[in-house]
Design a protein that fits this description.
Shape: flat
Strand order of the largest sheet: 3-4-5-2-1-6
Low-confidence stretches: 10-19
Largest sheet: 6 strands, mixed
Helix content: 40-55%
Order of helices and strands: EEHEEEHEHHHHHEHEEHEHEEHHHH
Number of strands: 12
Radius of gyration: 28 Å
Number of helices: 14
Mean pLDDT: 81
Structural class: alpha/beta
Length: 463
């Protein structure tokens, strides 16, 4: 029966014409997880995909039709029976001829089918090579290709929906629109360099500055959305921080429900970072226990504190643990290290050691990690923090490299704005170039080949 064209439509004009020559080899891989059961898919892509498949199936294949066939080995014996589908280039996932052989999900049978395809001239695909070819052939841009992996790895419905939006191009369209604005501003500035004797305002400088200011606003909005998308993909990064012997490791154990960290009465017991992953309302939360922050300590403890401060610089949230017997002194010891953390939850621990029940504090949670008192409030606040990072219905997934590129672009546009203010056009043009190139890295327009390979190497073999 025929397969509708909507599955792999003809590429639209939004994607660039491939700048790389078409692949001359044909790749093959099992496109379903080993041992998944049910239907197993062996995928071929490349110029010989159809010929190899027709030899294996011993029949001619029609484009976009599902054929019930027997898969044969080189002696004509049956390997299995199943469905063969041929998608003609360029209307396929990779933009090349693609054949899917759908067999029973037995790993030995699927491996035998792959071996048969290799004997006929195919080679085993590298991790992510199907998506890499789709990107190089203009079927997907790089952000969309990465969204394929994010969709496969999505742990809940929200993450899956966000990855689907990125795959459909929501993120890429916003990046491309912003890059077009930056490019137009850059062209204007470089044209003005030829008229250096004229004041910039006589060359449309006021309108140029207004356009750049608007571009910076749009970029800030896009960066905020990408940061939320990264949090949805990677989870909330929370660091447990406080002075030595405040009960940080005890609190980690209590929240994790197991003895993950060594706990003693000796200050400075924790020397290295200890990570524990929790899932709260569908959002993964990574708790990182750190060395207590204080002045002094031996060489090992000082290294632990350095690592703790490095971890804080990357934190979405700080869980500040203070000894309830003297919380003011503890907060003073760590206040400087918390200056750049966007959010914090303050916990006064060890309330079981107080001579009288503690008075409630508006900005702190009273707990005892030893007895469990107050822990439900900590869980509630962590749920609120996870909900506060809810990306909303229009969200898309993003990666750390996307956020980094957007931040570099934002910094470059800020420098360009300052240079325009002083009418330093050459500096402004260079800053705009850097900002434009950083945006191009997200979709793969200006990405080095070696980084491209590194990105796709993290994908599944069959994708």
């Amino acid at each position: 029966f025929p397969i509708p064209d909507s599955r792999f439509p003809i590429p639209d004009s939004r994607f660039p014409i491939p700048v790389t020559p078409p692949a001359t080899d044909t790749i093959v891989a099992i496109a379903t997880p080993p041992g998944a059961g049910g239907v197993g898919i062996v995928r071929l892509s490349g110029p010989a995909a159809r010929a190899i498949a027709e030899t294996v199936c011993a029949r001619t294949l029609r484009p976009r039709h599902a054929h019930h066939v027997r898969f044969l080995d080189d002696d004509g014996a049956s390997i299995d029976d199943g469905i063969a589908l041929w998608f003609v280039a360029p209307a396929s996932y990779t933009g090349e001829d693609v054949v899917e052989l759908q067999a029973h999900g037995s790993p030995p049978l699927l491996r035998q089918l792959v071996a048969r395809c290799c004997a006929l001239g195919a080679r085993m695909a590298r991790p992510g090579e199907f998506s890499e070819r789709a990107c190089l052939n203009g079927r997907l841009d790089l952000a969309q290709a990465e969204a394929v992996a994010d969709l496969i790895a999505a742990a809940d419905v929200r993450a899956a929906r966000a990855a689907r939006r990125a795959l459909e191009g929501d993120f890429s369209r916003r990046v491309d629109a912003l890059a077009a604005i930056v490019l137009a501003i850059r062209v204007h500035v470089e044209a003005a360099i030829d008229f250096a004797d004229e004041p910039l305002d006589t060359l449309g400088g006021e309108a140029l500055r207004a356009r750049l200011a608007e571009a910076r606003v749009q970029l800030a909005d896009l960066l905020a959305a990408a940061e939320r998308g990264q949090q949805l993909r990677d989870g909330l990064h929370a660091v447990i921080v406080g002075p030595p012997n405040a009960g940080k490791s005890s609190l980690l154990n209590a929240l994790a429900g197991s003895d993950r960290a060594i706990v003693t009465e000796v200050a400075g017991t924790t020397r290295d970072l200890l990570r524990e992953a929790l899932r709260i309302d569908g959002v993964e939360l990574t708790l990182v226990d750190t060395a207590g922050l204080r002045e002094g300590g031996d060489a090992i403890e000082r290294e632990g504190m350095r690592r703790a401060r490095d971890e804080l610089r990357r934190a979405d949230l700080a869980l500040v643990v203070l000894d309830a017997r003297d919380p003011e002194a503890g907060l003073a010891a760590v206040a400087a290290d918390l200056a750049d953390v966007p959010r914090r939850i303050v916990v006064h621990n060890k309330i079981d050691l107080l001579p009288a029940p503690p008075a409630s504090a508006a900005d702190a949670i009273m707990v005892s990690a030893r007895t469990g008192a107050g822990l439900e409030r900590v869980h509630a606040r962590l749920r609120e923090a996870a909900a506060g990072g809810d990306p909303g219905e229009g969200a898309f997934t993003a990666r750390a490299r996307h956020v980094d590129a957007l931040r570099r672009s934002a910094q470059a546009l800020a420098e360009a704005e300052a240079s325009l203010h002083h009418e330093q056009l050459e500096l402004a043009a260079e800053a705009l170039r850097l900002g434009h190139d950083a945006l191009g890295e997200i979709t793969g327009r200006t990405l080095p080949d070696d980084l491209l390979g590194a990105i796709f190497s993290s994908f599944c073999i069959g994708k």
